[in-house]
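[retry 2/3] Choice-of-anchor D domain-containing protein: previous attempt timed out, resubmitting with same input.
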Amino acid sequence: MNPPHPPIFRSPRRHSRGRWTLAALLALTTSCAQLPGVGASPTPDPAPTLTLSAQPDALVFSGTADGSGAGASVTRTVTLSNNSGAPVQLRNVLFDGASAAFGLVSPPSFPRTLGAGQSLNLNVRMLPGSPTGVLRATLSAVGDAAPIVAVPLAGLRAAGLEGNKEPALAQIVDTLDYRIDVGGSGLILSTGPGLIGEEVAAPLFERASAAPVTLRPVARYSPDGPSVYGSFVLNGGAAQTQPLGTMAAGGHQTLNPPLTAGSRTTFDPGSQPFGIYLAPNSYAAQDTFTLDRLNTGRVRHAVRTYPLRNRAGQTVANSYLLGFEPSENGDYQDVVFVLENVRPVADR
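[retry 2/3] Choice-of-anchor D domain-containing protein: success.
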């Protein structure tokens, strides 16, 4: 097939006096405007938008002043991604805030160019030292022209392992960015049956929607050893337990404790009311239940339940924080769970 010919222009008719008619001039102008590059200025391509993103958008750590415990060797990775169609120049990665509390493991060299679609992994850890308590900083990647991405860091640095060196429940929820009044800022809380802070009565639960229920251990400040957790239902007044997983040995005294292989954090309770329990472990010889009348240890009200509030102080629908006290001192942070997609129900 032959290529198409360009438009053929025919001479517009003239009046007898040799002047162009107005219609003829308009036709000629319109025809010329249809030719490439004729009658219009070329539109330049838009400049690429340089963007740099980070995943995850926040990092949480835990450790001790002397570097002992499971959190000492934990590193977490933040990935910087160049989502634009052009290279991005990175000048440096900086820490501010409690900057001495955090550092990079095997940091890359800077400045460097991050090509279009490329990414860079940064391995971050919390360092031993002082002060103790809740520590916050920001990891910032500084670009050459514009892009700056910031990742908030939160760390909980305990004075040491176990006993009165452990962090308080209030510090744990603060580090996790939950805005909850747990009933006191000190390590030891009341072990009485009365509700404290924003605690609600929640001996049992029911599923709030058809989706699975989520049960996540978010803190464990207890003696070492494997620790089994799960759900239970009532069968003739007695607890029928269903193990869901095991917090691993060697993973105590830390936020977000590691789980053994095969552990589950979601389950389907059906339509029957259920509770949450901890199995006997190395320091507590009895099961520990959200339902007080089932507890046989020295603390009968062994679980305190709080509506979950996010970092903005907003209530997270159908979500609760559960603090367990299987022993007797009343710190309620031996194991801390977040339970989602549930509503509390009364004992039946």
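[retry 2/3] Choice-of-anchor D domain-containing protein: The chain has two domains: 52-158, 188-345.
[retry 2/3] clearing retry counter.
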